[in-house]
Specification:
Distance between the termini: 30 Å
Structural class: mainly alpha
Strand content: under 5%
Largest sheet: none
Order of helices and strands: HHHHHHHHHHH
Radius of gyration: 26 Å
Helix content: 55-70%
Number of strands: 0
Oligomer: single chain
Length: 283
């Protein structure tokens, strides 16, 4: 090509994903804290497991939606589809990649509306069962609220906020159990993201599948077992009322078994394609 493409669509995708990440990030830490504050202690693992299970079902439906969009031509609605001579199996085919962003954005917007109606605080189950709070305790609460409201009314300097943030971050990262869990989660998610990113490409290259079908297979076979596993883990923790040490041992055992099973991927594959100059000589 004499003229290079000068499209800036990637900037919009970058900014859109940045906004999406900013909106999605508070759900996990603040949502778990909300559940932990206002649910029974033995029920929290199940609720957290439900939260993560739904989080895994989202990518599954995303892959299925991507599979559907990949079957549609990229300029659908703008060109006469009868004039298109190529099929999705053709290497020149470009699917309607933009349609998934549009549908996902609308659904995300609609799903965010109910969060506006959640109360700031709820009554704990114990308080609803036997509401025997003493008058002195109520007075102390009201006094504490007044103190907090007066503290909130005073504007704080950025230097003080940054200093407090640094102190909190140092305290959190110096917690050995939390730091170990953070490293473990980082390794797990790094491997899982790589798995989801490259496995569809591997299926296309090695097994001759279309983009649509490979996305469909990944969404149908890879993500539901993970969601089911998370939900079952929450149920097991609730049933046996595991402590932190018990939950750590349980997580280590399951992770080790998963690692052993994942090693079997090294024995699955096909012979390399015959490519002149790469796998065979030009003669």
């Amino acid at each position: 090509c004499e003229k290079e493409p000068s499209s800036y669509v990637w900037i919009y995708i970058l900014l859109g994903n940045m906004l999406r990440g900013i909106g999605e990030t508070p759900i996990t830490p603040l949502g778990i804290s909300y559940l932990d504050d206002f649910a029974k202690e033995e029920d929290v693992p199940v609720y957290v497991a439900c939260l993560h299970t739904i989080g895994m079902l989202g990518p599954m439906f995303g892959f299925l939606l991507g599979s559907l969009c990949a079957k549609l031509y990229v300029d659908i609605g703008f060109v006469d589809l009868g004039s298109i001579t190529i099929t999705p199996q053709d290497s020149r085919w470009v699917g309607a990649w933009w349609l998934g962003f549009l549908i996902g954005g609308i659904i995300s917007f609609l799903a965010a509306i109910p969060f506006c109606f959640l109360p700031e605080s709820l009554k704990k189950p114990e308080e609803t069962n036997n509401d025997k709070t003493s008058y002195d305790l109520l007075e102390n609460k009201s006094a504490a609220k007044k103190t907090l409201s007066s503290a909130k009314s005073k504007p704080r300097k950025w230097s003080a906020i940054l200093k407090d943030f640094y102190t909190s971050l140092k305290r959190v990262l110096s917690n050995r159990m939390y730091f170990t869990f953070l490293c473990c989660s980082l390794l797990q998610f790094s491997s899982f993201i790589g798995f989801l990113t490259y496995k569809p490409k591997y299926m296309e290259q090695q097994y001759g599948q279309s983009t649509s079908k490979s996305n469909f297979l990944i969404g149908l076979t890879s993500l539901p077992p993970v969601g089911i596993g998370i939900f079952l883990g929450g149920l097991i923790m609730k049933k046996y009322k595991m402590s932190i040490i018990g939950a750590t041992k349980f997580a280590f055992t399951m992770s080790f078994l998963a690692y052993c099973v994942t090693l079997l991927h090294f024995f699955v594959g096909c012979e390399n394609h015959v490519v002149a100059g790469m796998t065979v000589s030009y003669e």
